[in-house]
Amino acid sequence: MSALSALPFLKPVHLRSPRSSPGGQRRHTLPASEFRCLSPEDAVSVFEIEREAFISVSGDCPLHLDEIRHFLNLCPELSLGWFEEGRLVAFIIGSLWDQERLSQAALTLHKPQGSAVHIHVLAVHRTVRQQGKGSILMWRYLQHLRCLPFARRALLMCQAFLVPFYQKCGFEALGPCRVTVGELAFVEMQHAVRGHAFMRRNSGC
After folding, report:
1. To bridge 189 with a disulfide, which of 7, 67, 102, 171 should be the other Cys (CB 3.0-4.6 Å)?
2. Which parts of the sequence belong to the N-acetyltransferase domain (predicted)?
3. Is 95 designated active site?
4. Is residue 42 part of a domain?
5. CATH of the domain at 167
6. Which tens digits make up the pLDDT trace of 125-149?
7. pLDDT tens figures, 71-125
8. Within-domain flag for 203
9. What is the domain extent for residue 189?
10. Of 79, 95, 141, 145, which one is the catalytic site residue?
11. Residue 141 a catalytic site member
12. DSSP string covering 40-109
């Protein structure tokens, strides 16, 4: 069982009422909205959303399909997917990092002893953009991290035009990132993750 499925604030929300068949028996229906950790079986759906979201903007994806599978095998508990009626509509993938700032190696490595969660990518399906889903998903992801005893910080790198979005999510800019991808430059951002004991007292973790 993934760590995510045990958290009360990440249980499926707005569940659809069970429908009855003519014979009076209930039919099972998919939840209208569900948040859960991703698995390697979700990799293709993840990559399809990511490719559409990033190729037109930067010409490349933060994670290629084999890298998505790599991280979802190594650290699925650091991912979060938003599903509507069984269909993936938005996701975050992260891994652990063990240094103060991100370096080029952070793009492909998972450091199990690290205490910083490197958020590789957040993407929303094109059909549900401009609905605030990215902000909601990030909020739920940060709540999830606060219930993981090893997580102390969340780090990410983004292009300058995305800095205001992440600042609204509670991140602070640390300055230029040492990581480059082709000719692209990034700003590194950080969010402090409160300790495990605090969240046990305040959110039922």
Report:
1. 171
2. 33-194
3. yes
4. yes
5. 3.40.630.30
6. 999 999 999 999 999 999 999 999 9
7. 999 999 999 999 999 999 999 999 999 999 999 999 999 999 999 999 999 999 9
8. no
9. 33-198
10. 95
11. no
12. GGGHHHHHHHHHHHHHHHHSS-SS-HHHHHHHHHH-GGGEEEEEETTEEEEEEEEEEE-SSS--GGGGT-
